[in-house]
């Protein structure tokens, strides 16, 4: 039986190598491309804008705070590779009114041309025990983290399909792959982005438009610092089991995956393993993603229980174990 499974895996890997040129999209060239980054005034969004600018892209930054936008623009412009590059700043709340977001995208396209890549980075976080979170915060987080990505994506998708090219990136979170203590308001909003990304990819792939959903770990950003002020102890201890990533490191990985047209984007070995365990039946654009699904399917035939220790085992007073069945 084991030999049969091994033979199947080897045959499947060979098949993937043979068909990979057919399923892998042509990389997007960022030189001269128009990249729109929502939530681009700070954190991961700003670092993504910098990374794209370094590769010759024209950038439209979209965020609410005009002062932060101006400061971010100055920082990004330091990384120009030619004197033709432009950083356009537009202040708007992408979660409030679709028509307003649509008008903003039109303004950006009139000035810098059609959008080649949209990066949905606008988002906010909130942690706390379920019964202690104010009830209206659940709706607000869904507006910002989910609708704040739906509206800009809806505004660019028609043009991308007409041009038969484009990239749309959704910034989810590892909390959008695995529900965690203290994230009852936050995790569902990030899970929703995965559902949107999977459904949308099925619709737009025939038009050579590719979707990437990124699952960054805890990252050193102003938003993360603010979130830590109200984190329950249990949530803090879970976070401490992994190292804090830098925003520029996360941005480089996301941009690379988006340019390649990869559906999943994860950071580090922990991120890779979590993506492998939770890949489900996500769209496959690389051999690695295909192998992740094969691995998960194969493991399901073994009725074993796998335990992930989310807190250090020596901290017995706050020991927390999450058990999952593959």
Automatic annotation (TrEMBL):
- Which SUPFAM superfamilies is this protein grouped with? NAD(P)-binding Rossmann-fold domains (SSF51735)
List GO molecular-function terms, semicolon-separated: 3-dehydrosphinganine reductase activity
Database matches in CDD domains:
KDSR-like_SDR_c
Q: Name one GO cellular component term.
A: endoplasmic reticulum membrane
Pathway in which the depicted protein is active: Sphingolipid metabolism; Lipid metabolism; sphingolipid metabolism
Q: What are the UniProt keywords, alphabetically?
A: Coiled coil, Endoplasmic reticulum, Lipid metabolism, NADP, Oxidoreductase, Sphingolipid metabolism
The coiled-coil segments of this chain are 62-111
Q: Where in the cell is it found?
A: Endoplasmic reticulum
Which catalysed reactions does the entry list for this protein?
sphinganine + NADP(+) = 3-oxosphinganine + NADPH + H(+)
Gene3D superfamilies given in the database record: NAD(P)-binding Rossmann-like Domain
Per the UniProt entry, the Enzyme Commission number(s) are 1.1.1.102
| BP terms from Gene Ontology | 3-keto-sphinganine metabolic process; sphingolipid biosynthetic process
For this protein, the record's Pfam families field holds:
adh_short (PF00106)
Provide the function of this protein: Catalyzes the reduction of 3'-oxosphinganine (3-ketodihydrosphingosine/KDS) to sphinganine (dihydrosphingosine/DHS), the second step of de novo sphingolipid biosynthesis.
For this chain, the family text in UniProt reads: Belongs to the short-chain dehydrogenases/reductases (SDR) family.
Which named protein is this? 3-dehydrosphinganine reductase
| Species the sequence originates in | Pelobates cultripes (Western spadefoot toad)
